[in-house]
Design a protein that fits this description.
Shape: globular
Order of helices and strands: HHHHHHHHHHH
Largest sheet: none
Number of strands: 0
Radius of gyration: 16 Å
Helix content: over 70%
Strand content: under 5%
Length: about 200
């Protein structure tokens, strides 16, 4: 869901692959991959668990929960990629562009590990450069519409994008309160993973 944030919270190429694979594989298949990819899968889960328990994320969910109830977290995830992409303290625009290109390159280099449904999505992701273009409102609208279309129990015309636009200041503050903590947590988790080698 929040592909840019997950791709940024990595410390080697294998972890990039694992961060993307987590949402596309069965749990029992995770041990069939090389160690660095397994570490990326583990890191993805650690990031998700930390995110779900953070007070700032609970605040951010209040923006969307009146509209989509239990799906609020999915729309917060999409929103986070907007703020990550626009966070020039993390990376300059040039560095974000280079990061996006590196992720696509690494995924292609590890193409044999990617399931078919992810390969199909990767083609679209790369063509439209989703990772770099999350900085633009229209790309967040596209992502939110995609979530609505995939959600079984949501109407397709719920104004979640309008809620995002109307509450950018609130969501920005939630991001500012949250992301440094997440980054520190990801670094600590990676340090533990390296000790296990």
């Amino acid at each position: 869901m929040n592909f840019l944030a997950h791709s940024f919270l990595t410390f080697n190429d294998g972890q990039i692959v694992g961060q993307f694979l987590e949402d596309f594989i069965r749990n029992k298949d995770r041990y069939s991959f090389p160690k660095d990819i397994q570490d990326g899968i583990t890191l993805h889960r650690a990031v998700d668990t930390f995110t779900d328990s953070h007070p700032a994320i609970h605040e951010a969910k209040k923006v969307f929960s009146p509209l989509v109830r239990l799906y609020a977290g999915a729309f917060v995830d999409v929103s986070l990629d907007y703020f990550v992409a626009n966070d020039l303290q993390l990376n300059s625009l040039k560095e974000w562009k280079e990061h996006s290109l590196k992720v696509y390159r690494v995924l292609h280099e590890n193409y044999q590990y990617l399931p078919a449904n992810f390969r199909n999505m990767l083609t679209r992701m790369e063509q439209d450069n989703w990772l770099y273009n999350y900085r633009h409102d229209q790309n967040i609208k596209f992502s939110m519409t995609n979530v609505l279309n995939k959600a079984k129990y949501l109407e397709k015309d719920i104004p979640v994008f309008e809620a995002f636009l109307d509450n950018k200041d609130i969501l920005q503050k939630c991001y500012d309160d949250f992301f440094p903590d997440l980054l520190a947590h990801a670094k600590a988790e990676n340090a533990l993973l390296q000790l296990q080698k």
